[in-house]
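haha ok so turns out i had the wrong file open the whole time. this is the CORRECT one, sorry everyone. sequence first:
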Amino acid sequence: MGRLQEKVVVVTGAGRGIGRAYARAMAAEGARVVVNDLGVEVTGSEPRADTAEVVVSEIRAAGGIAAASAHDVSEPEGAAGLMEAALSNFGRIDALVNNAAIEYRASLEEHGGEDWDRVMAVNARGPLLCVQGVVPPMRAQGGGVILNTTSGAFWEGTEGVAAYSASKAAVFALTLTQHNELHAAGIRSNCISPNATRTRMLETWLEQLARESQRSEAQVMEEYGIQSPENLAPLAVFLCSDAARDISGRIFEVQGDRIHEILPPQRGISVEREGEAWDPDALARALARVRTP
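then structure:
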C-alpha cells in the first residue's frame, strides 16, 4: 500500500520537469493521477496535445494509473474541463497540485503588457481558476488538499523576470487565503517553493555556463546547488498524504538537502507619530536608520 493509495491527484504542468516528477512519484505511491499539460514552450507558445500522453504512458508502463489532459488552465473553460475530466475518469479529486507555469525574460523596461498578462494568466489566474473548480467537489466529499507552487524569485527580487516574480507572489498570497477560507471545510492548502532546479527555465543558462567553463553540466549543477525535479517530489507526496493532515497554510522551500519553512512577510521597524499629523522632518529623524540594502 502506497502513501497515496486510491487517492486521485490532479497535477497541472505535469508534462515536463517538476510536474512530471510529481506525477510519477504520486502514481508510484498508489495515486490515480490526472496529468495535465498544454504542451507549450517555456514562454507559453506552440502547444502540443501529446505532451501529457507521454507521461501517462510512462506511469502506465511502471504499473500506475493515469489519465491525460490538455486543458488550458489559464481559461475558465479549461480549468473547469480539467476538473470534469478528473471526476469523469476517477469519481473524485483528493488533491490538486497547481504547478503549471511559464516565464518571460526581459528587463523591466522591456516587459510589454501582453507579456505580463500571458505570464499572470498561466501562473496566477490558472491556480485560482483550478481552486474554484476543485473546491465544490472537495467540499462535497468532506475535504482535500491543494498544493501550490511559488518561487524565491518573488522575495529575492530576481532580475529579468518581473512578471514571473509577481505571479509567484500572487500564488504565495493565494495559498494563505485558501487556508483561511477553506481549512474549516477540511481542505488543506500548502505551497512548495523550489530553489534552483533543473527545468527548461534553467536549461539554456546551464548549457551556456557548462560550455563557457568547459565543465560538465553535472559539475555546474553541483557547484551552484541546482537540484533535480525528483528532489522535490517526496515533499509533494508527503503534503498530499494523510500523514500531513495537520499541516496547512505553510510554504516550504526545497534547497537541495535542506527544506526551509518560508514565513509570510513580517513587520520590521516601527515609528510612532509625535503629533496630530505625520511630519516629514520627524520622519526623516525617525527613519534615519533605514537604508537601501
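The first strand starts at residue 8 and ends at 12.
again sry for the mixup
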